[in-house]
Fold this sequence. Notes:
The complex is a heterodimer.
Chain A: E1 4-12, E2 18-27, E3 32-36, H1 43-51, E4 58-63, E5 66-67, E6 78-81, H2 93-103, H3 110-123, H4 139-151, E7 157-161, H5 169-186, E8 189-194, H6 197-203, E9 206-211, E10 214-219, H7 221-226, H8 231-236, E11 243-250, E12 253-256, E13 259-262, E14 277-282, E15 287-289, H9 290-293, E16 303-314, E17 318-324, H10 329-341, E18 350-356, E19 366-371, E20 377-379, H11 391-416
Parallel strand pairs in A: 3-8, 3-9, 6-7, 7-8
Antiparallel strand pairs in A: 1-2, 1-4, 4-5, 9-10, 11-12, 11-14, 12-13, 14-20, 15-19, 16-17, 16-19, 17-18
Chain B: H1 3-31, H2 53-59, H3 64-98, H4 104-114, H5 119-133, H6 139-164, H7 167-175, H8 180-209, H9 212-216, H10 226-229, H11 243-264
Helix pairs in contact in B: 1-11, 2-11, 3-6, 3-8, 4-6, 6-8, 7-8, 8-11
Amino acid sequence: MASITMNNLVKKYDDGFPAVNDVSIDIADGEFLILVGPSGCGKSTLLRMVVGLEDITSGDLLIDGNRVNEKEPRQRNLSMVFQNYALYPFLTVYENIAFPLRLAKGKFSDDEIDKKVRNAAELLDLNDHLERKPGNLSGGQRQRVAMGRAIVRDADAFLFDEPLSNLDAKLRGQMRTEIAQLQRRLGITSLYVTHDQTEAMTLGDRVAVLKKGRLQQIASPRELYEQPANLFVAGFIGAPSMNFLPARRDGNTFHTPIGDIPVPEHAQGRLDSAGELLILGVRPEHFADARDVQDTPWAAKGATFEAELTHTEWLGNQQYGYVRYEQDQDIKAKLDELAKDLDADEMPAQVVVELDASSRIRGGSNANLWVNTRKMHVFDPETGLNLTRDEEAGAELTREANEERKAEIERLQRHES
Amino acid sequence: MSTKQKLGWAIAIVVVLIWSLFPVVSILANSLKPASEFAGGGGSFLPQTYTWENYQMIFTGGARDLFLPALRNSIGITLIATAVAVVLATLCAYAIARLDFPGKRIILITALAVSMFPVVSIVTPLFNVWRQIGLYDTWLGLILPYLSLTLPISIWTLAAFFQQIPWDLERAAQVDGATSFQAFRKVIVPLAAPGVFTTAIIAFFIAWNDFVFGIGLTSTSAARPVPAALAFFTGASQFEDPAGAISAAAIIVTIPVIILVLAFQRQIVAGLTQGAVKG
């Protein structure tokens, strides 16, 4: 049990490239923190700096208030699950799990080791495989052995380096749940690296989004989703991702390629610092078939426009419609740069709208669409900042998440005893 | 594989087998011939009459005092040279594969350069130096030059082998609480065992088969190895050809090599690291 504090951590390689640039994060005791970002954003490097496999160029790393920058990995008392599991192939599952205990010479008797290993195996459903070698296990089982080796020791914190990226989709979902429940049950501080935003959203108490070695935003998943700090976070969190529309403001109206949209109330007074050209961010679920909302109170909370859908995708529980538009050349470079940061080639000039599964709108036809302007974000194309971010509402969401976490840990621990 | 391909392979295998086994069979045949059959040019390929007299001669007969000490020298010197070479090369190769230190390339290049000197060009200067410092005709006097032959190739082979071992295994051990040396001993060494065996066998062969150092740096049975001793074989009388005894001795020194290969064949199992990382 421990808190981990990173103060202005920097990692520079010999060629001067800063893989991690001035990152400060506080992880509370028992918290589950996710580091997320596209490949090459420095998240794995940061994790390795915490565990001690990578030197820290500058800044301080504190575990429970003690500076550990110069300590060897074995002195930091952290345990880690590697992306490729890193199981010892010549040892049985039992000996793999017992390995950290056997290294602490004289600390545990054989009986104690046996008890601890069997406890861990019980917890991870590995009892039938204790005598097998890792080479004969399936991916999910290997993953569990790696977890067993991490939890068997009373480590101060768990570190995970993309532990699920080698599993197939179904197993990934299952292991995700298991990791979440295990962490809650043990109540141990955890730091988890992933590039998968679904894992980030479902597992984390808080999520830290990194881009090119810099921390973009750290908040609860809900806050990231509803109150993103900038274009990058808005585009990275959520699937399908947020639509970015070029808009030219003229008084109280946004002129966009898909039609005119009135400037929503929460944006008024906040846009004056930026130029005339802006980027609107709307999530697909904040669109709807205008017919579905016309007689409801929602109709007044948004704007309606007409657009031609190129095609629709019906998925059973919902339906996606696609609207193509002419990209604004002044904004294209900015959006393509954002796409590159997000590991894509270019930003397609199309809007994805989520429609009710029962909607009769089909591809190739003109449709009346409704957009919930209250949920719309407005970004400054120059700085990428979210001009309509409501800091208080965001902080409130993170506070709520924090309370929920505490309640859940209490509930689970009551359940255990 | 089609029948045609199978046939092609079978023919190729037979050709290679004949090509490589013919000399061995020839020596074996010679070792079983009585001395009389060598008179007048060697006689037929297979012996007319089979006899153990050549083997009797090298173990209990006239060549005994020449052969048995030489066999002892060969075994002792080769085993020590191999063991030292493997231990040194393992540590050296590990450092080269894993650590970043100045002069890494120089070590590798020097190792390669050393092994490029022809043995004959070294043996004369060594002869003089060894006589001055008292290493001439001693075990140590042969072990040192053998190390200069076996170390470079051992370092190169092992360095390549260590580089294939996933680095994360070692990192995992360090996070699990191991010191650098513990991680090396408990994780890397077991994983490297097949590579170490392969290297040991190569080093053993190099030292075992050496002739030039053996004949140049020894003068008595105190340190003379078998390949050199064979040159001193004489027949039962001045007029008899020693070819039979030499063949018998050659067969005897081939046996350890065959045993080694058969014994360690199992250890040299490829893919031992399967399962360590996602396969």
